[in-house]
Amino acid sequence: MGFIKFENVSYAYNSGAAETPAVVDFSFEVNEGEFVALVGHNGSGKSTVAKLVNGLLLPDEGAVYVDGMSTAERSNLFEIRKRVGVVFQNPDNQMIATIIEDDVAFGPENLGLPPAEISARVGWALECVGMGEHRKGTPFRLSGGQKQRVAIAGVLAIKPRVLVLDESTSMLDPVGRAEVLRVVGSLRKNENMTVIMITHFMEEALLADRIAVLNGGRLVMDGGREIFKRAEELESIGLSAPLVKRVAMKLRKAGVLDDDDILDADALAGALCR
Ligand code: ADP
Ligand code: MG
Q1: Closest atom of ligand 1 relative to the 50 alpha carbon
Q2: Which of 14, 39, 47 to mutate to test the pocket of ligand 1 (most atoms within 8 A of CB)?
Q3: How far is ligand 1, taken at its centre, from the CA of residue 52, in Å?
């Protein structure tokens, strides 16, 4: 069984009289070491999936398992939340303390770890996100990208096996986005971290090994970067292929190129030179 497993999960929000199905018959597995991008247009159910992963929401139907433990068992939630850390969109809503190290210490303190271990984890987590020098500083003066890196450090300090980023770059400027993506890259490389990156930036999805596409709460595509060849299908559900892919497809239509496998700028430049 995958480290994370959704088994025929459906979930509807009970907002007054109207029931909104947010996730419908969703089956999905993520193995340890994978880097998966979860994409879909607004309202397709991505954040609901993120909240179902660690039991912030519980399925109406089906089941969610983390490391073999069902989120539906209350007694599993502590262990599940040690294994899966979720970083949300707005870094300002994720800061609680006035000193950065206290903020990052919040998670490990809740695990009841001894002070020396907490301190070591805070140092390690801040180093992982390139914010080691800011340990004694205050979060308020940080840029958006720096704040989001501190939020990631707060999750890392729990030493999760899986990091879920729910549109964690969407409120950042390009510099901040690049900072966060660099952190994800180094966590993949140095810590072999399992990552589920929820994003509506197709260029970001290209960084992942696997791309899962949600539409109307249903999983409609799940595969490698070749799914971007299904550009028309993606457009029909409000998504577009990455810019490079779209340019390559236009050039192909115009008879300039005949290469169907171009997904990054280097490949496009190479094909054009040829
Ligand atoms: P995404 O993250 O892909 O934008 P969400 O998971 O937030 O999608 O939302 C999926 C669906 O559930 C949407 O139709 C949305 O309007 C609805 N929804 C999300 N949160 C709530 C909520 N707290 N109450 C009622 N409906 C909600
Ligand atoms: Mg969302």
Answers
A1: 6
A2: 47
A3: 12
Ligand 1 atom 23: residue of nearest CA:
13
Mean pLDDT of the chain: 91
The protein residues having their C-beta less than 5 angstroms from ligand 2 (an ion) are: 46-47
Cα of 252 to ligand 1 centre, how many Å?
38
- CA-214 nearest atom, ligand 1: 3
Q: Which residues approach ligand 1 with their CB closer than 6 A? A: 13, 15, 20, 22, 40, 42-48
In three-state form (DSSP H/G/I as H, E/B as E, the rest C), the secondary structure along the chain is CCCEEEEEEEEEEEECCEEEEEEEEEEEEECCCCEEEEECCCCCCHHHHHHHHCCCCCCCEEEEEECCEECCCHHHHHHHHHHEEEECCCHHHHCCCCCHHHHHHHHHHHCCCCHHHHHHHHHHHHHHCCCHHHCCCCHHHCCHHHHHHHHHHHHHCCCCCEEEEECCCCCCCHHHHHHHHHHHHHHHHHHCCEEEEECCCHHHHCCCCEEEEEECCEEEEEECHHHHHCHHHHHHCCCCCCHHHHHHHHHHHCCCCCCCCCCCHHHHHHHHHC
* 94, two tokens: 């994720």
Q: What is the pLDDT of residues 50-65, one digit of tens each?
A: 999 999 999 999 999 9
Find the mean pLDDT for residues 38-45: 95
Map out the domains of the chain with their CATH numbers.
4-225 (3.40.50.300)
Q: What is the pTM of this model?
A: 0.91
Q: Whose CA is nearest to atom 13 of ligand 1?
A: 43
Residue 20 has phi, psi (to 5 degrees) of -105, 110
Please name which ligand lies nearest the alpha carbon of 48: 1
